[in-house]
Amino acid sequence: MTTPLRTADFDYTLPPELIAQAPASERDRSRLLVLDRSTGALHDRIFRNLAEHLAPGDLLVVNEAKVIPARLFGRSERRHNIEALLLREVDADPGSRYAETGCWEALVKPSRQVRAGDRLILADGAITAEVIEKRGEGRHLLKLVYDGRLADLLWRFGQMPVPPYIKRQQSAVSSQRSGEDNALTDRERYQTVYAKHEGAVAAPTAGLHFTPELIETLAQQGIVVTPITLFVGPGTFRPVRAEQVAQHRMESERYIIPEQTALAVKTARREGRRVIAVGTTTVRALEHAAAMGEIRAGAGITDLFIYPGYRFKSIDALITNFHLPCSTLLMLVSAFAGRETLLSTYREAIARRYRFYSYGDAMLIL
């Protein structure tokens, strides 16, 4: 009888100084650790030399989701400092009793200081929000009131929702210039160069290393790049609290597989060419769309949880960043590379001083 996987089986110790607080000086100057999962061999490379490990006919699938600056700051009637991260409009939920109100689900901090009925003043007063209800884990339902287009206001007043392990000071006067510089950097760099479709609240970080010049180089070498869109939600940072891995439940995320991408993946697999997913979000969209056999085009919602024991149906290689201990992302990559192989690789990456997490370095798993 197989022993159930425990969340603790995916733990490792990372020195805090290896958590990248800023991106590399240039996108494609990040380091790239190449892992051959059949032998465990490792090679140190630079991301801009990615083409050295690819072949003509390889198919790279990227996630074109665009992060919106959905983090807003303001105050309530009872507290001076309030932060609200807009997650999604609930009118996207079929049958929602709030479908006609234009309400948003949001993470509000400090959650304990916010009650149903409170009125929040956000974005220098350009947006007000009534707290309709509390939903647990810091989530609240907000009714927003504003003039004009919400997207315009977010791009004017909002900040990019970088993960909490990237430390950003918001209010100290002495750090105002530093905060402004960070905000400008995040607007540019916490976004892929090919991002098109707004709606994500986290970046598909494996794609942050690509530049237009690198994509052109790949194309000139006969490597095809084709898109999907998966709107990354806050669940990507949600900790796994269950003791056993199989007890965890993923949050749902919306995705779109274009016809040309579905056809390109089918053709590549039929012809024996490699399909290389850029990021775990791309993997989840492709694998969900291929659940019944050949990949299907169209829009869908996935709560697919991939962990060791999963049999991949659509991909042959993976480009990914280094992920948090005990996270669903680490579990997905472990399913592809093998848990022991991956954890051994992480230990070696730490010894070689690779930079970890969203703004960190990358891996190519072949």
Task: Write up what this structure looks like.
With 366 residues, the protein is an alpha/beta fold. It has 2 domains: 7-67 and 192-365, QueA-like; 71-158, Beta Barrel (Thrombin, subunit H), CATH 2.40.10. Helices cover 21% and strands 26% of the residues. The chain has 7 helices and 17 strands. The strands form 3 sheets. It has a 9-stranded mixed sheet. A 6-stranded antiparallel beta barrel has the order 5-6-7-10-9-8. The protein is globular and about 60 Å long. The protein starts with 30 loop residues before the first strand and ends with a strand.
The CATH topology of the largest domain is given as QueA-like
What is the terminal separation in angstroms? 31 Å
Tally the helices: 7
- Give a quick account of the main beta sheet: strands, pairing sense, barrel closure: 9 strands, mixed
Structural class: alpha/beta
Oligomerization status of the protein chains: single chain
Order of helices and strands: EEEEEEEEEEHHEHEEHEHEEHHE
Number of strands: 17
Shape: globular
**DSSP helix fraction:** 10-25%
CATH class of the largest domain: Alpha Beta
Topology of helices and strands:
Blueprint: E1 31-35, E2 42-46, E3 59-63, E4 65-67, E5 71-76, E6 82-89, E7 103-109, E8 119-122, E9 127-136, E10 139-146, H1 150-157, H2 176-189, E11 197-200, H3 212-220, E12 224-230, E13 253-257, H4 259-270, E14 275-278, H5 280-289, E15 298-302, E16 317-321, H6 328-337, H7 339-351, E17 362-365
Parallel strand pairs: 1-17, 3-12, 3-14, 4-11, 14-16
Antiparallel strand pairs: 1-2, 5-6, 5-8, 6-7, 7-10, 8-9, 9-10, 12-13, 13-15, 16-17
Helix pairs in contact: 6-7
